[in-house]
Design brief:
This protein is α/β, with parallel strands linked by helices and about 850 residues long. Helix content is about 35%, strand content about 25%. Strands 1, 2, 3, 4, 5, 9 and 10 form a seven-stranded mixed sheet that branches. A hairpin with an 8-residue loop joins strand 26 and strand 27.
Length: about 850
């Protein structure tokens, strides 16, 4: 475990020669209980000007504490078991002002270290004044020997050491009194109560506290042994060092304890309890934290959270800890979050068509399609032509207009023309639309559908017949009549209506304003350098709103848009050479398709031909770490960005991946113009590390769903909804947690949580575990519920396996079931495996279409 350490500031003169002899006496013990010791180390700092002696003491304390790691990776548990290793350090700050530090590596508790200090003091008195010689450090008792064996077993699994820092705490007597009272009521020790509270806090942070109460957690270990208690599943250690006797004199000199501010840790957190007194109630100690995971502020928040949770749990020991007050007092939460900054658009504020038209004076390349380049001047002229045709067709500002056209520059011009006219744009891809297309047109009731050539189209035939709709062909040979376009649009006017994929029900229309579109595309194009010289692939299907974002961001900042042909867009074997041929610099896609692209790159050795590709924007799905490792290997110069956000807010967060990670990839920090909160079930802010619901506040939250009065998802957070505050609220339905560095981590969907045999399980966790199996190319899990009760009774697991050269799958259901059993342990997953012959079906957003999987299973 961590080095046992004792530090003191001494007042008075010290005979160094006598101290050296006393140290030799102290560490000499009987055979079989030897303490290996280094000679005394001495530093004279009297010539150094010191303004803050206490700060110097803490710094030296940290320096010497970290110089003596208990277990280096090269050391074995056998070496640890052989015995402790002791060091003595002394520094003179002034003639009568000294620092003394004792460190011991090995499985000894703090009481043993204190006895070492007592023996040193007695040996020094013997050397200087002829006092009786001290008895050597006692042979370990049976209990100490057993404790050492337990620690050695732990050390076999905890061989890594981490740099850390220390944060002291002293809690008021009332809290200490309540700890003692509850401990007596529950026939437990006070340290047992503190250990239960620490478990509760860490389980709550991980989203695994469930219905657990303080009383239930106390039942696990009501009387923890003195010393260090390892909590490996929580990446923490609970250290009860309250048994160490108080030391007020060392070597006959007045002594004041000094604690290190820098330490070496075996885990992410170590909670050390130094003082736990009943007669004069007092709780004190320190929180040692790994600095790679926590900063000083987040560690302080964690400590405050433990105190708040402990106080609340003591008053309600039978209340589930998930429902207790937040680990920060309400006053602190209000102070931190009530004064939100005023949201203002960043970048240009003109409507998107105006920004694009500003580049027409240079006639730089705007759109490349099928080997032909359309300049900004020609694109602007085509957009104005579309605007005149809409005016001639009596389409008014505020009317809905659907653009259903094949890829090419005219489709881009139609988009700009509709926006410039002040109509509400809905962009749909041509081809089979099915029930979704009819639902969209029915809900929208558009003034017209804009097409390029009035060919055979089943959806348009239905639209004309059933809805009496009009179709405007912007590719008609005759010139557009000289009709005055509609008046200028305002930022608050609706720019477009995007529809959800409809994979879990009827698609919902989501309107967004010109202000929202302009603000986001301006930020996107600027942040990711999509302007002049950039070659941006227009990959996203028009049915999905990120297509508008990549078009707008490129054209608003003066870049060149390369429209991907439909037959290339969905086929990674064709897309990779297309990206190389056109020297694409920016690509936006979903992680699962990026994995397909990576497979092609690795198989064909195409990495060197993709040297122009500098930016990969990934959105729509969780980003697996193994994808990052593959991309780093094949395309080392590529910058990878993880974007997150529902259509209701356009987008919410972004994160540049700057290094490889073993755990989930963060979704990052808020995009300008958005505030993100992580809230518990009581609408109170979760602490750092705790899983909760992601809620967005922004002026770019949609006004609501088309044709629906349901405001459930837009309900404000009451205690933060201050009068006159700018911006609406959107409850995403996503789970997340804030990391110590302030970034967010995605934790799945609230509606992707199911209960099996009373256990809460994340479908994304099942998918992530199975996807890590070497034989699995991709997979998806669909819950099967009882029609009457809605309770989940089973899981349909759809797997696309890797195959050998003859097309045979490299894995089978028995292997996959065993793999999941290894991940979930005793929890039985009632899974039925379905081997998919080809890739999983996807919706317009590129996400797995679970409704089609469900239908395919029902039809089988």
């Amino acid at each position: 475990m961590s080095p046992r350490f004792a530090g003191f500031r001494l007042a008075g003169g010290l005979d160094l020669a006598a101290l050296r002899r006393a140290w030799d006496t102290t560490v000499s013990a009987r055979p079989g209980d030897a303490v290996t010791a280094e000679p005394l180390r001495f530093t004279d700092l009297t010539a150094v000007a010191v303004d803050d002696v206490d700060a110097l003491a803490a710094a030296l304390c940290g320096q010497w504490a970290t110089e003596a790691p208990a277990v280096r990776e090269a050391e074995s548990a056998t070496a640890v078991a052989a015995g402790p290793h002791a060091r003595l350090h002394t520094a003179r700050i002034a003639p009568a002002d000294l620092l003394l530090f004792v460190t011991v590596d090995g499985a000894l508790d703090e009481a043993h270290v204190s006895r070492l200090v007592d023996t040193l003091s007695a040996a020094y008195a013997h050397e200087c004044h002829g006092a009786p010689a001290p008895v050597a450090v006692a042979v370990a008792t049976a209990q100490e020997a057993a404790a050492r064996e337990a620690v050695v077993r732990t050390l076999r699994t905890r061989t890594h050491r981490y740099e850390g820092a220390s944060l002291p705490f002293v809690w008021d007597g009332e809290l200490a009194r309540r700890v003692a009272e509850v401990a007596a009521e529950q026939s437990a020790s006070p340290t047992g109560v503190l250990l239960a509270a620490l478990r509760a806090l860490l389980l709550r942070h991980g989203g695994h506290a469930g219905d657990g109460t303080l009383r239930a957690l106390l039942g696990f270990e009501p009387h923890p042994l003195r010393g260090d208690r390892d909590l490996p599943q929580l990446d923490a250690v609970f250290a009860d060092r309250s048994a160490a006797p108080a030391v007020d004199r060392v070597a006959g000199l007045r002594a004041r304890p000094v604690f290190p501010d820098r330490v070496m840790l075996p885990a992410g957190l170590v909670l050390v309890v130094d003082t736990l007194e009943d007669e004069a109630p007092r709780l004190s100690g320190r929180l040692e934290y790994r600095t790679a995971l926590y900063n000083a502020d987040s560690a302080a928040n964690l400590l405050d959270g433990l105190r708040t949770l402990l106080a609340a749990a003591l008053d309600a020991p039978d209340t589930p800890v998930d429902t207790l007050p937040p680990p920060l007092p309400a006053a602190a939460l209000i102070e931190r979050y009530a004064a939100l900054p005023v949201f203002k658009p960043v970048g240009h504020t003109d409507p998107l068509p105006v920004q694009v038209a500003a580049h027409a004076v240079t006639d730089a390349p705007a759109v490349v399609w099928d080997g032909r380049t359309t300049g900004y001047a020609a694109l602007d002229a085509a957009a104005r032509d579309v605007t005149r045709r809409l005016a001639a067709a009596s389409v008014a500002a505020g009317d809905a207009v659907v653009v259903r056209m094949p890829p090419g520059p005219l489709r881009i011009a139609a988009l700009l023309g509709v926006l410039a006219h002040g109509a509400k744009l809905c962009w749909l891809a041509p081809g089979p639309a099915g029930e979704r297309g009819r639902s969209v047109l029915t809900a929208l009731g558009p003034a017209c559908v804009v097409v390029e050539g009035d060919g055979v189209d089943e959806l348009l035939d239905w639209y004309r017949t059933e809805l009496g709709g009009r179709v405007v062909d912007v590719a008609a040979g005759e010139a557009a009549p000289p009709v005055t376009p509609a008046s200028d649009v305002t930022p608050g006017d609706t720019a477009y209506i995007a529809f959800t994929s409809g994979s879990t029900g009827r698609p919902k229309g989501i309107p967004q304003t010109h202000a929202a579109l302009t603000q986001f595309t301006g930020w996107l194009g600027t942040r990711f350098a999509m302007g002049r010289g950039a070659r941006v692939a227009q990959w996203v299907s028009p049915d999905h709103d990120p297509a508008l974002a990549e078009v707008g961001a490129t054209l608003a900042t003066g870049g060149t848009l390369y429209v991907v042909p439909d037959e290339v867009r969905v086929n990674p074997d064709l897309l990779v050479p297309w990206l190389a041929e056109h020297r694409i610099t920016h690509l936006q896609t979903v992680p699962s398709f990026a994995r397909d692209i990576l497979d092609v790159i690795a198989r064909t050795g195409a990495g060197p031909r993709l040297d122009a590709l500098g930016h990969l924007l990934l959105m729509g799905e969780a980003l697996p770490p193994e994808l990052l490792r593959g991309l780093a290997a094949e395309l080392p110069a590529l910058r990878v960005f993880n974007l997150y956000g529902p259509t209701e807010v356009v987008a919410a967060t972004w994160h540049e991946v700057t290094g490889l990670t073993e755990g989930p990839v963060p979704i990052g920090r808020a995009i300008p113009g958005r505030q993100l909160l992580v809230l518990d079930e009581n609408d109170l802010t979760c602490p750092v590390g705790a899983t909760g619901s992601i809620v967005v506040r922004s002026p770019y939250v949609t006004s609501g769903y088309l044709g629906s009065a349901d405001r459930t998802s837009f309900r404000p957070v009451e205690w933060l909804d201050t009068p006159g505050a700018e911006g609406g609220w959107y409850r995403t339905g996503d789970l997340g947690r804030r990391l110590p560095d302030g970034t967010l981590e995605y934790r799945g969907r609230e509606d992707f949580q199911i209960k099996l045999a009373g256990n809460r399980v994340e479908l994304t966790e099942i998918e992530g575990s199975l996807a890590s199996h070497a034989s699995v190319l991709e997979c998806a899990v669909v819950p099967v519920a009882e029609p009457a009760s809605g309770l989940v009774r089973g899981l349909d697991v759809h797997v696309v396996p890797h195959r050998d050269a003859d097309g045979r799958p490299l894995g089978a259901a028995a292997e996959w079931r065993a793999h999941l059993r290894g991940h979930f342990g005793s929890l039985t997953l009632p899974a039925t495996f379905h081997e998919a012959p080809d890739r999983l079906p996807r919706n317009a957003a590129g996400k797995v279409d679970r409704s089609r999987l469900r239908a395919a299973t029902a039809a089988a």
